[in-house]
Amino acid sequence: MAHKVAIIGLGYVGLANALALSLKNEIIGFDIDQEKMNLLKNEVSTLKESRAVEIIKNNDNLTFTDQFVDTIDTDFMIISTPTNFDVATSAFDTQSIEDTIDNALEMNYQGTFIIKSTVPVGFTEKLKKSKNIENILMVPEFLTENHPVFDIFNTSRVIVGGKDKELSEEVAEMFVEISEKSPSKLVGFSEAESIKLFSNGYLAMRVAYFNEIDSFAMANGLDSEALIDGISLDPRIGEGYNNPSFGYGGYCLPKDTAQMRMEFKGIESPLVDSIVESNHDRKIFISQEIKSKNLQKVGFYRLIMKSGSDNFRSAAIIDILNQVSKDVETINIYEPMMTEKQMSLLPENIVMIDDLEKFKSDSELIVANRIDNHIKDIEAKIFTRDIFHVN
């Protein structure tokens, strides 16, 4: 059964959902970012996946608007606005979700709200009561940043948190229909919120665990690849999230682990606490390894969070750059995606080099969180922990 669906917030989660759902439903997408809206209205996808570019072209089921009122006459309103972790309050900032719902209610919205943003445990229940909302569901998303559209079509599960079983089943069916018949599970609001947070917490724990093994191998002169490969051959452990890095970063893991830590406040949780601390310690360890080489010109190749990503948010390599810059005379950076505004936030001894060949020749050492074909020719110069060449 086709539905009319509004999607509020067209970041990688919102837009990926808009594109995927448009194959079976009528979609109206809205975002306050005017530059993004202009691109989408002109059928230019802000997601670079080939499937995204293909879907957005000549799609009669897909409309983008910069007028919020156009989203009101819909069966479902999916809210995928950002919820960053606010250090001042030690909790997610959920104001964008609340503002969206307030605006919709003021315009007499009669459909069902579907929250896809990551929120604190208990948030949806409190929102339902405080706003006196009859129809609201929590449907967490399980996407990666480098290919979110692919992930929607191949998601591991569809989780729907709510109280109305019939409504939950209807929404679960809508998402299962586009996700290659993935299994669905109906749970309560808080269970859905917890599943999202704790899933990301586990992935962050794996990243931190294998990074610590890599630190151990480096400190003791062991073959890190042999060590991790041997451990991962156990099918109970497997190969997922075992490639060493400079630390986890990006949109989700840093904020979700910080929020998860707050959820356990008052409960003894040394394992949960240690995930965040381990990630911090890993970045210090890597920084010290680089500084111990006593070089004058160190290059940093790409500052994006990981290969295929288009953002710098909480990228571990930036934290390492900031540490290393205190003890190195010149820091060369090659990052074609960085804007002048983003550059202004970096240390003063930074030299941006647009020419890749000049960057490679002018740097004594090149720090790269992930290796690609553009720098494989200078392997002897590269400092990386990218052992298996996967994200």
Structure description:
By secondary structure, the chain is of the alpha/beta class. About 40% of the residues lie in helices and about 15% in strands. It has 14 helices and 15 strands. Helix 8 (about 190-220) crosses helix 9, helix 8 (about 190-220) runs parallel beside helix 11 and helix 11 (about 270-290) packs across helix 12 (about 315-325). The longest helix has about 30 residues, at about 190-220. The radius of gyration is 22 Å and the shape is globular.
Salient structural properties:
single chain, 391 residues, alpha/beta, 6-stranded parallel beta sheet, 5-stranded parallel beta sheet, 14 helices, 14% strand, globular
Rg to the nearest angstrom? Answer: 22 Å
> How many strand segments?
15
* H/I helix tally: 14
Strand content: 5-15%
Helix content range: 40-55%
Secondary-structure element order, as H and E? EHEHHEEEEHEHEHEHEHHHHEHEHEHEE
Q: Uncertain regions: pLDDT < 50 for 5+ in a row?
A: none
Trace the largest sheet across and list its strands: 3-2-1-4-7-8
Shape: globular
State mean pLDDT (0 to 100 scale): 94
* Cα-to-Cα separation, first versus last residue: 37 Å
Given helix and strand content, the structural type is alpha/beta
Major sheet: 6 strands, parallel
Please outline the helices and strands.
Layout: E1 4-8, H1 12-21, E2 26-30, H2 34-41, H3 50-56, E3 62-65, E4 76-79, E5 85-86, E6 91-92, H4 95-106, E7 112-115, H5 123-130, E8 136-138, H6 148-153, E9 158-161, H7 165-176, E10 184-187, H8 189-220, H9 224-232, H10 253-263, H11 270-291, E11 297-301, H12 316-324, E12 330-334, H13 340-343, E13 350-352, H14 356-362, E14 365-367, E15 382-383
Parallel strand pairs: 1-2, 1-4, 2-3, 4-7, 7-8, 9-10, 11-12, 11-14, 12-13, 14-15
Antiparallel strand pairs: 5-6
Helix pairs in contact: 8-9, 8-10, 8-11, 10-11, 11-12
